[in-house]
Design goal:
Number of domains: 2
Helix content: 40-55%
Strand order of the largest sheet: 3-2-1-4-5-6-7
CATH architecture of the largest domain: 3-Layer(aba) Sandwich
Number of helices: 14
CATH class of the largest domain: Alpha Beta
Largest sheet: 7 strands, parallel
CATH topology of the largest domain: Rossmann fold
Structural class: alpha/beta
Strand content: 15-25%
Number of strands: 13
Distance between the termini: 17 Å
Length: 366
Amino acid sequence: MIRVGVDVRLSYMPGVGRYIRCLLQGLSNPRSGVEPIVYVTSDTPLPLPDLQTRPIPVAPFSITEQAYWPVRIARDKLDLFHSPHYLAPLLSPCPLVLTIHDLVYHRFPPEGLDFLPLRLYYRVMNRAATARARAIITVSSFTRGEVGSRLRVDLRKVRVVPNALEPRMKPQPFAACESVRTKYRLPADFVLYLGTHKPWKNLPTLLNAFREVSRHRPECALVLCGKRARNEDDLTQRLRDSAREGRVLSIGEVAERDLPALYAAARLFVLPSLHEGFGLPVLEAMGCGTPVITSSAGALPEVAGDAAVIVDPLDVQGWSKAIIRLWDEPGTRASLTEAGFARAKEFSIEGMARDTIRTYEEVLAS
């Protein structure tokens, strides 16, 4: 039995939180050969019930935690420590495995003096943690390449273990979809975007494309939803203008329990990002049976495979034509839905756990 410590203090974050939930579900299988020990603060949302938890009396992003971790890890007699994000115990007395989801802040660093400490911490921690880690897990081949080129890491110690799709991300009954439409005052049919307004999410291109869509298909509505972020673009005026020019609704953050029905209620899902280390919403939409249009940037084509329409992220005309085409063609939507189901099945919790545990075993055997 491998005794593995897992830091889950960032489980409140949307993408990282999903990764942590799937990881722990796989590791908690009695046949996994792993005994996960989960580290939490007093306000950490527990990813799963019935986990062995250990309290951590220090907050993330602090110097204090680096002094605390070695004592805690030694006391708990861990065989290995897995950091599922870039916060890592640099002085860990046992081997360290690190997961890197993306290096987006290397390409799109938050601007302004307010974010200077975050930029410095991110870059210093990335380089220090990757140097210290015995093995690095990336969620895509694209991110593996970035780790090699941007952080100068020896790729022999980098393993690709894709994200898994949560079992709840599946087709939903009509009543659940109607309930979500009523709760968020959504139209009967709409195009869905889920994400922040951060610069690399490329919302201005989507809004420009939708202006053209509205001229040709005035009945088509675009619904934008997602959690607000500190370092995102201020698109308030753009959204007001877009709402006047077409049917654009910005509904803000959606409750986690409503996400499967929201995906399933949409006629199309769009993700026009300039950079993604994985692009989990693409996979979630596919799992829920919603046809996907996504960009050719980052790891998105790698995740989507042949089960989505791929468009250059900066091609406004390409986006408007793709949206209109799928809006008009139920046969094409049905084909993409079937392809999406098949694609989503390739990203299982069992496969993610198997490949992660293989990485643990390789580290401990080396």
